[in-house]
Write a structure and sequence with these properties.
about 120 residues, elongated
């Protein structure tokens, strides 16, 4: 994200008084060089509660900085398959893992919410 947008995000988060270390959270966003944000990565970097991490990311989605997507996690090889779905209803009934060629039949149970940065 651009530095002026990061300043806006930081000010907005401070106004909301989330139970998270805002400085550490902003440090994570300054380091991010990709378009995809994984809540678990934010959680591990900031040491914040995972529920609070999702609250902050949902807030940034509501503010128009992020978009929510689903990505499928393969329980057999412990990797994401690399396809993104905008809504729950777009999830297929069956998916195939490109890493180990296994068939995933419980796709919705292996769907994880991730976020895409839409303001750069």
């Amino acid at each position: 994200m651009q530095s002026n947008i990061l300043v806006q995000v930081e000010l907005s988060l401070k106004e909301q008084k989330f139970n998270i270390d805002i400085e550490k959270f902003m440090e994570f966003f300054r380091l991010v060089k990709q378009k995809w944000i994984f809540p678990d990565a934010v959680h591990h970097f900031t040491k914040a509660d995972i529920v609070e991490t999702y609250r902050v990311l949902d807030y940034l989605t509501d503010m128009g900085y992020l978009e929510q997507y689903f990505e499928i996690y393969c329980p057999n090889c412990n990797r994401f398959i690399g396809r993104h779905y905008k809504t729950y209803f777009e999830l297929p009934e069956v998916e195939y893992c490109p890493h180990n060629d296994c068939e995933l039949t419980e796709v919705s149970q292996n769907a994880v919410i991730i976020y895409r940065v839409i303001v750069e």
